[in-house]
């Protein structure tokens, strides 16, 4: 039986993640809590807007209302990586070789390992940032599409066009696909290995009753799990054409409760599903078998993250009910 | 826990041209002793500082929704900022959005209806338009935005009223009334106004929107005589009523203008492209009215800036109220009709290129 160790933090949890084997809970106030032989707290920002793990898994990178980008290591070492002045940071992404990308309004910066900053500007606000798995290439989600830039040279960006507001972006782990979430309750994907102008480069993934705010690739990158419906919607990306012409899996379907957060298991084809009523389950792709991990709470699950071996799951909710679930008990 | 999360946070939108006095008004709101804390969203930090702890600068980012409807626009930047702000509720009681002079108020307002997350956490309270009494005639001539801001407002502050003559002021009020007959108009100097006239108006709250104006739509109607007791628009001039031959307004009739019998108060220099159309009918058949309002807002939605109505439905003892922005329309039962109230249906459309004759004919056709 799974066991649950609760941690009540009384503030919106923006990101719950494991750094090494230490659970981190980044809160909207700017405090980051971690459980490492006791409860520790670091004040990283005056108002935290987004947080994610560095690609090497060694630190939590966060961005705030104060315009700063901070890193916090498992042992509590905190560093300021960059600042964009007094502006809110809208988007944050981490890439290979310790690269960190962040944006405020139409301006984005990429900070490289040695502290060099590369600057980019788009015509519309940058809402999401993702790094390609290979090569120093970055995608900016914005109105009417995505711009793909090589970080280290000045060639003009590739402009992936799809009308509408794109609010987040992710690369498939093999780099063959790029998927955005949109303001209008849909995902949009591009096949990156297709030829420019091919009709079939586009992948429209629609039918969600709500905005997709959480996306997660499965262990081997063959599936993309998403929130935004009364089930976790899992799109197949194993074929050449991704999910085109195929129905997605619907896991953990519940009546009128919405899935608000998803996080795929690091080794198995299993996804942790968090709901608007605070319930958390784990569901297996192969047979739709479900395991209840948390009964529910006072608010929606806002973030979840597995540890490296996939035995522990950190979670947080909008009202700050956080905790760690041990699925092996 | 989380009482804030369940009580929607009121949002006030300030519009007005550069120099109309928005920042002055904002500072008045923020510094007055009301015990409330505000979060302020601005497009750019102006030269005059804003005296507040929580100011967020945000680039105006208009998103057309990809649903084939050209008027379904929202402000992407506001969605993001409001989400960020409401995560840390408790540090403020209300939100004020200050727009740039040229901003279109419609996407700002629609954001609070069309984005589910924003809608769950906030409630649009009112749109306030500041106009500069001295420069308004010129503004109306050279920019449709100025007209839109007035047309869309719930409250219009005719600011810098000390810089113009009484005659000019009443002409301006007449112009404003012509563009927007249902707005509350206040004259101000240096943006000075009782805050209860601009805050907590509930202008988009179906239960309150029309209650706050007891004579809703009475202006411009032959039955209504504005008199000394008529305080609902804080005017002290005759406007909007049915002018008789003795009226000394500087106005003339537009010939061939179909405006459903609304008296046109206008001078050439105040010619406006936004029109308001006020309609009346008796008891309506719900089987005709609901399809009609749906169809009308679907077809004419792009041209409708605002609509408000009180509808008397057949075999229904409750008043039914509707309001809308472009294609968004909301309606609900409001309260029982009082014994001394005349059960009739009234609706006003504010917009451009509206076919008054058709609207009137089709509205009348909904009668039971």
Describe the structure.
- The complex is a heterodimer of chains A (329) and B (368).
- Chain A has a six-stranded antiparallel sheet with strand order 14-15-16-17-18-19, with no helix packed on it.
- Chain A is mostly beta strands and 329 residues long.
- Chain A has a domain at 1-41 and 212-329: Methylamine Dehydrogenase, Chain H (7 Propeller).
- Chain A is built from no helices and 30 strands.
- Chain B folds into two domains: 3-209, P-loop containing nucleotide triphosphate hydrolases (Rossmann fold, 3-Layer(aba) Sandwich); 273-364, CobW-like, C-terminal domain (Hypothetical Protein Yjia, Chain: A,domain 2, 2-Layer Sandwich).
- In chain B, 27% of the residues lie in helices and 24% in strands.
- Chain B is built from eleven helices and 14 strands.
- In chain B, the strands form three sheets. In chain B, strands 3-2-6-1-7-8-9 form a seven-stranded parallel sheet, with helices on both faces.
- The interface between A and B is medium-sized, with 32 and 25 residues.
* Principal-axes shape call of chain A: globular
Count every helix of chain A, treating DSSP H or I runs of 4 or more residues as helices: 0
User: What is the first-to-last residue Cα distance of chain A?
Assistant: 5 Å
Radius of gyration of chain B, in angstroms, nearest whole number: 20 Å
Mean pLDDT across residues of chain B? 81
The largest β sheet of chain B comes out as: 7 strands, parallel
Main sheet attributes: strand count, strand direction, barrel closure of chain A = 6 strands, antiparallel
Compact summary:
The complex is a heterodimer of chains A (329) and B (368). Chain A has no helices and 30 strands.
Question: Can you lay out the helices and strands and say which pair or pack?
Answer:
The complex is a heterodimer of chains A (329) and B (368).
Chain A: E1 3-8, E2 13-19, E3 22-27, E4 31-35, E5 39-43, E6 48-53, E7 59-64, E8 68-73, E9 78-83, E10 91-94, E11 100-104, E12 107-111, E13 117-121, E14 128-131, E15 137-150, E16 158-171, E17 177-182, E18 187-191, E19 202-205, E20 215-217, E21 223-226, E22 232-236, E23 249-251, E24 259-264, E25 270-275, E26 280-284, E27 290-294, E28 301-306, E29 312-317, E30 321-326
Antiparallel strand pairs in A: 1-30, 2-3, 3-4, 4-5, 6-7, 7-8, 8-9, 10-11, 11-12, 12-13, 14-15, 15-16, 16-17, 17-18, 18-19, 20-21, 21-22, 22-23, 24-25, 25-26, 26-27, 28-29, 29-30
Chain B: H1 3-6, E1 9-16, H2 22-31, E2 38-42, E3 55-57, E4 62-64, E5 73-75, H3 76-87, E6 94-98, H4 105-114, H5 116-121, E7 122-132, H6 136-142, H7 144-152, E8 155-159, H8 166-179, E9 184-187, H9 206-209, E10 274-281, H10 286-300, E11 304-312, E12 318-325, E13 328-336, E14 345-352, H11 356-364
Parallel strand pairs in B: 1-6, 1-7, 2-3, 2-6, 7-8, 8-9
Antiparallel strand pairs in B: 4-5, 10-14, 11-12, 11-14, 12-13
Helix pairs in contact in B: 6-7
